[in-house]
Protein backbone atom coordinates (compact mmCIF):
# COMPACT_ATOMS: atom_id res chain seq x y z
CA UNK A 1 0.00 0.00 0.00
CA UNK A 2 2.85 2.38 0.78
CA UNK A 3 4.35 1.89 -2.68
CA UNK A 4 1.11 3.06 -4.28
CA UNK A 5 1.09 6.20 -2.18
CA UNK A 6 4.75 6.83 -2.89
CA UNK A 7 4.19 6.29 -6.61
CA UNK A 8 1.27 8.72 -6.54
CA UNK A 9 3.39 11.38 -4.83
CA UNK A 10 6.16 10.75 -7.35
CA UNK A 11 3.74 11.26 -10.21
CA UNK A 12 2.41 14.44 -8.62
CA UNK A 13 5.97 15.72 -8.17
CA UNK A 14 6.76 14.95 -11.80
CA UNK A 15 3.64 16.83 -12.89
CA UNK A 16 4.60 19.82 -10.75
CA UNK A 17 8.11 19.81 -12.23
CA UNK A 18 6.68 19.56 -15.73
CA UNK A 19 4.30 22.45 -15.04
CA UNK A 20 7.23 24.53 -13.82
CA UNK A 21 9.25 23.63 -16.90
CA UNK A 22 6.53 24.62 -19.36
CA UNK A 23 6.25 28.00 -17.66
CA UNK A 24 9.89 28.88 -18.37
CA UNK A 25 10.75 31.43 -21.05
CA UNK A 26 13.01 28.90 -22.78
CA UNK A 27 10.16 26.42 -23.24
CA UNK A 28 7.73 29.12 -24.37
CA UNK A 29 10.33 30.33 -26.87
CA UNK A 30 10.69 26.78 -28.24
CA UNK A 31 6.92 26.47 -28.70
CA UNK A 32 6.76 29.88 -30.36
CA UNK A 33 9.47 28.90 -32.84
CA UNK A 34 7.71 25.65 -33.68
CA UNK A 35 4.38 27.40 -34.19
CA UNK A 36 6.02 30.05 -36.36
CA UNK A 37 7.11 27.29 -38.74
CA UNK A 38 4.23 24.83 -38.51
CA UNK A 39 1.25 27.18 -38.71
CA UNK A 40 2.14 29.00 -41.97
CA UNK A 41 3.17 25.76 -43.65
CA UNK A 42 -0.04 24.02 -42.58
CA UNK A 43 -2.13 26.90 -43.90
CA UNK A 44 -0.21 26.85 -47.19
CA UNK A 45 -0.54 23.07 -47.56
CA UNK A 46 -4.26 22.97 -46.79
CA UNK A 47 -4.91 25.84 -49.17
CA UNK A 48 -2.81 24.20 -51.89
CA UNK A 49 -4.57 20.88 -51.29
CA UNK A 50 -8.15 22.17 -51.34
CA UNK A 51 -7.68 24.50 -54.31
CA UNK A 52 -7.46 21.48 -56.67
CA UNK A 53 -11.03 20.21 -56.13
CA UNK A 54 -12.40 23.75 -56.08
CA UNK A 55 -10.72 24.66 -59.36
CA UNK A 56 -11.68 21.34 -60.92
CA UNK A 57 -15.32 21.58 -59.88
CA UNK A 58 -16.08 25.25 -60.43
CA UNK A 59 -13.71 26.51 -63.12
CA UNK A 60 -12.19 25.37 -66.38
CA UNK A 61 -8.69 26.52 -65.45
CA UNK A 62 -7.34 22.99 -65.05
CA UNK A 63 -8.86 21.56 -68.24
CA UNK A 64 -6.23 22.95 -70.60
CA UNK A 65 -3.18 21.09 -71.85
CA UNK A 66 0.01 21.66 -69.88
CA UNK A 67 2.68 19.56 -71.59
CA UNK A 68 3.26 16.02 -72.86
CA UNK A 69 -0.49 15.51 -73.27
CA UNK A 70 -1.16 16.08 -69.58
CA UNK A 71 -3.82 18.46 -68.42
CA UNK A 72 -3.11 21.14 -65.85
CA UNK A 73 -5.22 19.16 -63.36
CA UNK A 74 -2.77 16.24 -63.52
CA UNK A 75 0.21 18.54 -63.20
CA UNK A 76 -1.37 20.24 -60.17
CA UNK A 77 -2.20 16.87 -58.61
CA UNK A 78 1.35 15.62 -59.10
CA UNK A 79 2.70 18.85 -57.63
CA UNK A 80 0.83 18.00 -54.45
CA UNK A 81 3.12 14.99 -53.99
CA UNK A 82 6.13 17.23 -54.49
CA UNK A 83 4.83 19.74 -51.94
CA UNK A 84 4.26 16.98 -49.37
CA UNK A 85 7.79 15.62 -49.82
CA UNK A 86 9.37 19.07 -49.68
CA UNK A 87 7.33 19.92 -46.60
CA UNK A 88 8.27 16.66 -44.91
CA UNK A 89 11.96 17.16 -45.63
CA UNK A 90 11.81 20.79 -44.48
CA UNK A 91 10.12 19.80 -41.22
CA UNK A 92 12.58 16.96 -40.70
CA UNK A 93 15.47 19.43 -41.00
CA UNK A 94 13.77 21.97 -38.72
CA UNK A 95 12.84 19.31 -36.17
CA UNK A 96 16.53 18.60 -35.61
CA UNK A 97 16.91 22.20 -34.45
CA UNK A 98 13.82 21.92 -32.25
CA UNK A 99 15.14 18.69 -30.73
CA UNK A 100 18.46 20.36 -29.97
CA UNK A 101 16.67 23.28 -28.31
CA UNK A 102 14.59 20.83 -26.25
CA UNK A 103 17.72 18.93 -25.17
CA UNK A 104 19.37 22.23 -24.20
CA UNK A 105 16.33 23.18 -22.12
CA UNK A 106 16.31 19.79 -20.37
CA UNK A 107 20.04 20.04 -19.73
CA UNK A 108 19.66 23.56 -18.34
CA UNK A 109 16.88 22.51 -15.94
CA UNK A 110 18.13 18.98 -15.26
CA UNK A 111 19.07 19.70 -11.66
CA UNK A 112 15.62 21.07 -10.87
CA UNK A 113 13.91 18.22 -12.73
CA UNK A 114 15.80 15.47 -10.91
CA UNK A 115 14.31 16.66 -7.69
Can I get a quick summary?
This protein is mainly alpha-helical and 115 residues long.
Features:
83% helix; mainly alpha; 115 residues; two-stranded antiparallel ribbon; 4 helices; 2 strands
Structure, described:
This protein is mainly α and 115 residues long. The two termini are 23 Å apart. Strands 1-2 form a two-stranded antiparallel ribbon. It has helices at residues 2-22, 25-58, 72-108, 110-113; strands spanning 65-67, 70-71. A hairpin with a 2-residue loop joins strand 1 (65-67) and strand 2. It contains 4 helices and 2 strands, in the order H-H-E-E-H-H. The protein is elongated, with a radius of gyration of 24 Å. Helix 2 (25-58) runs antiparallel to helix 3. The longest helix is centred in the C-terminal third of the chain and has 37 residues, at 72-108. The relative contact order is 0.12.
Amino acid sequence: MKSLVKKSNSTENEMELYEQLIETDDFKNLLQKKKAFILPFTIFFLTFYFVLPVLAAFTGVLKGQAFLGMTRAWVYALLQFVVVWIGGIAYFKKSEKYDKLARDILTKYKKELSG
